[in-house]
Amino acid sequence: MLLGSIFERFAAKSPISVMTRGLMETALSSEHLNALFEEQADEQYTRKLLFSSVVELMSLVVCRTRPSIRAAYRALADSLPVSLTSVYNKLDGLEPQVSAALVRHTVTRLEPVIRELGGQRPEWLPGYRVKILDGNHLAATEHRLSETRTTTAGPLPGMALVVLDPSLMLAIDLFPCENGHAQERSLFPAVLATVHERDVWVDDRNFCTLGMLVGIADRKAFFVTRQHKGLPWQAEKAFHRVGEVEGGEVWEQTVRLENADGSTLIARRIKVKLEQATRDGEWELFILTNLPWEEIDALTVARLYRRRWTIETDHPHYTSRRRWVARRSVAYHLGERAA
Q: Among 3, 7, 18, 98, fewest CB within 10 Å belongs to which?
């Protein structure tokens, strides 16, 4: 039974554990997982080892019930019809789109439950859907080719972009990449394909490119992005003081962003004069947004961006867990050796 060993110790005396177990088995039912694999996989196919069995095995590692894939395999060996080598071969062959589809599948199963039970948090910006975009490069590991273990610049096993819905507190999308040295910007076209009208994408300066900003605006969505120094822009109006928020003084101006094709995007450039310098020693923070002036003032935008930072500060366990889940999801098809 999927995830059985994780909750078995609590099920007899804790009804909450029983309900949680039922919820997780609904979200990760074997039937749906195997159907998802058959639909998404291009080159790999099922012979003896089911995709649902791979997810069950990996769940023991992700939830830290077992310290490694090898240990998880030993715990489930009686129910797995293949050798450990075959398990590793299956992991090696899993494709990026399968990992991404797994994340989206769990959201479709869990989001309705959260909303039905009233478990979502207050909307960050009523009338809009806020999405926080962040990148995660997987760290180099000793579980790699022996020839590379003595070098400090070890090959990175992969990277991913993760989308968080702060109201649901769920990672709702994943964009994995097998090349750990690839730039996050190489995944922007895939991200833009998922942008919906009235989305508000909140992200850091790594995502501040003309292509990304214009792409979001073209889809009738909005961005709240920390300005990258390399972004070309021209001032339309001078800064004027708006007021203060916790941590700093807020100023605003209108700017023009010109795309390579000659198209123009008018946006607001918001400056926050910080009371304390950032860890990089910066005393001013610049934020770009195309949210409508008449609905969302600069103080609200500054607070919105600041709340993105507080997720890691106020919810360190969630943040580490989110990165761990993203890491293991990508590890499915990277063949990472957690032996």
A: 18
Nearest to 30 by CA among 59, 68, 65, 72: 59
Helix (H, G, I), strand (E, B) or coil at 24: helix
Contact 56, 3 (CB under 8 A): yes
Q: d(Cα 275, Cα 278) in Å, to the nearest integer?
A: 10
Long-range contacts of 79-84, Cβ-Cβ distance < 8 Å, separation of 24 or more = 79/53, 80/49, 80/53, 81/48, 81/49, 82/48, 82/49
**170-177 and 159-165: which strand pairing?**
antiparallel
Q: How distant, in Å, are the alpha carbons of 13, 210, 257, 275, 321 from that of 299? A: 49, 24, 22, 16, 31
Q: Please, what is the Cα angle at 151 between 150 and 156, to 5 degrees?
A: 115
Q: Alpha-carbon distance 329 to 3, whole Å?
A: 16
Residues forming a β-bridge with 245: 248
pTM for the predicted model, two decimal places: 0.80
What is 109-317's CATH topology? Transposase Inhibitor Protein From Tn5; Chain A, domain 1 (3.90.350)
Which residue type sits at 217? A
pLDDT for residue 111 is more than 80? yes
Greatest CA separation for the chain = 70
Q: In the chain, which residues fall in CATH 3.90.350.10?
A: 109-317
- pLDDT tens for residues 43-97? 888 888 999 999 988 888 887 889 989 999 999 888 888 999 999 888 888 888 9
Q: pLDDT tens digits, residue range 116-136?
A: 889 899 999 999 999 999 987
β pairing state of 129-137 and 199-203: parallel
Please give the DSSP secondary-structure letter assigned to residue 122: P
- Cα separation, 76 vs 214, in Å, equals 49
What residues are paired with 129 via a beta bridge? 199
Task: Say if residue 147's pLDDT is above 90.
Answer: no
